[in-house]
Amino acid sequence: MAKKTIFEDCDILVVGGGMAGTGAAFEARHWGRDLKIICVEKANIDRSGAVAQGLYAINCYMGMQWGENQPEDHVRYARNDLMGLVREDLGYDMARHVDATVHMFDEWGLPMMRNKETGRYQREGKWQIMIHGESYKPIVAEAARKSADKIYNRIMITHLLMDETKENRVGGAVGFNMRTGDYYVFRAKTVIVAAGGASHIFKPRAVGEGMGRTWYAPWSNGSAYALPIAVGAKMTQMENRIVLCRFKDGYGPVGAYFLHLKTYTQNANGENYEKKWYDKTKELVGEYIDHHPTPTCLRNHAFIQETMAGGGPIHMVTKEAFQDPHLETVGWENFLGMTVGQAVVWASQNIDPKYTNPELTTSEPYVMGSHATCSGAWVSGPEDISPPEYFWGYNRMTTVEGLFGAGDTVGGSAHKFSSGSFTEGRLAAKAAVKYIEEEKAKDINVSDKQCKEFKEIIFKPLENYTVGRNEITGGTVSPSYISPIQGLQRLQKIMDEYVGGISYNYMTNENTLKRGLELLEWLQEDLEKVGAEDYHQLMRAWELKHRTLTSQCVTEHTLFRQETRWPGYYYRGDYMKLDDENWHCLTLSRRDPKTGKFTMEKAPVYHIVDEKEKKEAS
Ligand SMILES: Cc1cc2nc3c(=O)[nH]c(=O)nc-3n(C[C@H](O)[C@H](O)[C@H](O)COP(=O)(O)OP(=O)(O)OC[C@H]3O[C@@H](n4cnc5c(N)ncnc54)[C@H](O)[C@@H]3O)c2cc1C
Predict the structure, then answer these.
(1) Residue 75: HSE in the Cβ half-sphere, 13 Å Cα cutoff
(2) 3-state DSSP call for residue 510?
(3) Measuring from atom 46 of ligand 1, which residue has the nearest CA?
(4) How high is the pLDDT of residue 35?
(5) Which of 26, 93, 97, 590 is CA-nearest to residue 380?
(6) Is the whole model's pTM more than 0.85, yes or no?
(7) How far apart are CA 186 and CA 6, in angstroms?
(8) Mutate to test the pocket of ligand 1, among 123, 199, 370 (most ligand atoms within 8 A of CB)
(9) Ligand 1 atom with the shortest distance to the CA of 408
(10) Quick check: helix, strand or coil at residue 273?
(11) Are 235 and 229 in contact (CB under 8 A)?
């Protein structure tokens, strides 16, 4: 069914040209002058990924040149926000390099806001600096375009190729062009997966005509996880899904409102509801509730408890700040830079924040590795600071040789955001070049047989449709295939009802998780019968398959961790308390590519930053 087969051999293949992918393409050229670098993107790198529409703030900037923050501070911040559990080596490594990345963005023409008095970048908060960021993505895309030998847009990567000479070594990736239907085989010495996070695996709040209005990019479909999971790479903290508190229905950002406009939240009676839940939260998580700033999940927890107790709706108090014309302008511009839809929603609902306090909501859960959460691949850290359990040769390399990750793909390192993801792409690319230079990618063999087999598999949904549609006697429902949208809604229902989605107030337990796993397995079987009527639907079919594999991994992890570490992100009803004695650890999974079975284990958490300081003090 595929039209042509196109082969492309290269040294470094970057999968996904978002923030991390563009960073990887740029840096790969810096270190690998003579290497062949290819970037493959599902959309078009000028406007792809979570930053497609632009941003109003760069959320991760240390400001070391002015002594504002040090990398150690950022590690402590991320550790605190994630209730103690992060890979401090990865976080530190990103933080020590992120300022250099931001300075390049500045040089490349990204309009940065400046503090008129100090001349420094305008701070929105301790870590955030403000930008006029509508053009953010085209600017970083240009850097990638100038660096890579070739950028392929509109190609979805569906599978990684594996070397047939050496076990557990990557050999490239395959996919298809969703406009032409051509089959693409990229044989590569190293692959950097930078394919973003996963939205739409849990049932979203906006369904039916509003489907697609989610907080995270609706086109982030979990390829970043499914690709490494499918070839047996270890994953970490996949249970650590994130729930966001955002403006209702438009999911407009709240950061600038809280930090710059100094707005605050209250319940329907005008009360500070967070205080009300202090004692009860302390019973669940102990002293973590006293940490500053209050961890994101715990603020969600108070929100959820308050609405469950009938105190909703929860409002953002904007009426006071919006009396100041400057702040009013910032409030609106904030949406123009990144979420125009929020302004449209308010207009349609007759909300002028100067006179009406808008409602907030908690979103459905998302899986990602770069925001206030850290699900993703288990990767090696940098040589100079990682303890032996965290280091196996090449920075940001997964447990599959030659397969690297960056941005949302990489687990354990939260709060990277756009700048940190680009930085991590750079780090991964530098290590990938070293891997090639040290001849670790010699004699890779990917047979024609392997490529042909994937071709059959990838285009099967087109065949399912072509054959199956003949059996339809009326309407559109086929007896022998399901459409991608039907499969997606089934997935979302399973995840919502059994794995802690919005309908169940994020509650789950061992029994529901086990049932969820059973249903997911049957869904996997039925996805063999997914039908695609055209190449666009073929993409939808593969997005669904990637989402489903990601969901299985999330569910396995959620079952494994027998505690509620992040109330407000999800609750294990059978283990409602945080349990530092048994679960102050990272969770790891590996799916056996042959059997499809997951095995789980614990990995230690090292508090490297303060250990280092303790040693220095003694
Ligand atoms: C609503 C929202 C608000 C945010 N606000 C801020 C903010 O204010 N400040 C800030 O600094 N950060 C912010 N972030 C975070 C920031 O956008 C992310 O941290 C960053 O984009 C992650 O980079 P990434 O490369 O991992 O993913 P992305 O930038 O999403 O890139 C992933 C890329 O992979 C492509 N892709 C996916 N699957 C495939 C496949 N199978 N084959 C080929 N290509 C594929 C996608 O099309 C995409 O281009 C925000 C994110 C969101 C969603």
Answers:
(1) 22
(2) helix
(3) 49
(4) 98
(5) 93
(6) yes
(7) 8
(8) 370
(9) 26
(10) helix
(11) yes
Q: Is the dihedral of CA 89, 95, 98, 100 positive or negative?
A: negative
Position in ligand 1 atom list of the atom nearest CA 22: 25
The DSSP H or E segment spanning 184 is strand 183-193
Q: What is the rounded distance in angstroms from the CA atom of residue 551 to the CA atom of residue 553? A: 5
The single-letter DSSP state of residue 469 is G
User: In this structure, what token pair is assigned to residue 445?
Assistant: 């063999």
Please, which residues have CB within 8 angstroms of residue 25's CB and are 6 or more apart in sequence?
14, 17, 37, 39, 143, 144, 147, 148, 151, 425, 429
The distance in angstroms from the start CA to the end CA of the chain is 68
Q: Which of 371, 397, 399 is nearest to 382 (CA)?
A: 397
In angstroms, the CA 299 to CA 321 distance is: 22
| Ligand 1 atom nearest residue 368's Cα | 26
* Amino acid code (one letter) for 286: G
Compute the distance from residue 19 Cα to the ligand 1 centre, in Å.
6
Q: Is 350 exposed, middle or buried (0-12, 13-18, 19+ CB in 10 A)?
A: exposed
pLDDT score of 340:
87
The residues, ordered by sequence, that sit 6+ positions from 463 with a Cβ below 8 Å of its Cβ are 1
Report the SS3 class of residue 95: helix
Nearest CA to 484 out of 196, 255, 178 is that of 178
What DSSP designation does 563 have?
S
Atom of ligand 1 nearest to the CA of 20: 25
Ligand 1, pocket residues at CB < 6 Å = 15-21, 40-43, 48-51, 55, 57-59, 156-157, 194-196, 215-217, 219-221, 223, 253, 370-371, 407-408, 417-419, 421
Is-contact 168 401, C-beta < 8 A?
yes
The β-bridge partners of 9 are 187
Neighbour-count burial of 155, counting CB atoms closer than 10 A to its CB (0-12 exposed, 13-18 middle, 19+ buried): buried
Pairing of strands 585-591, 571-572: unpaired
Give the position of tokens 């919006």. 322
Q: Are 70 and 61 in contact (CB under 8 A)?
A: no
**Cβ atoms of 201 and 550 closer than 8 Å:** yes
Please provide the DSSP assignment of 345-368 as one string: HHHHTT--TTTSPPBEEEPPPBB-
Q: Do the beta carbons of residue 481 and residue 528 sit within 8 Å?
A: no
Q: Enter the tokens of residue 37.
A: 């670098």
State the 10-residue block means of pLDDT for the chain, 618 residues long: 88 98 98 98 96 93 98 97 98 98 98 96 94 94 98 98 97 97 98 97 89 85 98 98 94 87 95 95 98 96 97 96 94 84 92 96 96 97 96 97 98 97 98 98 97 97 96 89 96 98 98 98 98 97 98 98 98 98 98 98 95 67
Å from CA of 49 to ligand 1 middle: 4
Beta strands at 183-193 and 403-405: parallel, antiparallel or unpaired: parallel
* Residue 109 region by backbone torsions, left for phi larger than 0, else alpha for psi between -120 and 50, else beta: left
* Cβ contact 447:409 at 8 Å: no
576 CA distance to ligand 1 middle (Å): 32
Burial class (CB in 10 A: 0-12, 13-18, 19+), 209: exposed
Q: Whose CA is nearest to atom 2 of ligand 1?
A: 216
Q: Categorise residue 443: left if φ over 0, alpha if ψ from -120 to 50, beta otherwise.
A: left
Q: Which atom of ligand 1 is nearest to the CA of 369?
A: 26
Q: Are 316 and 357 in contact (CB under 8 A)?
A: yes
Q: Any idea what DSSP says for residue 317?
A: E
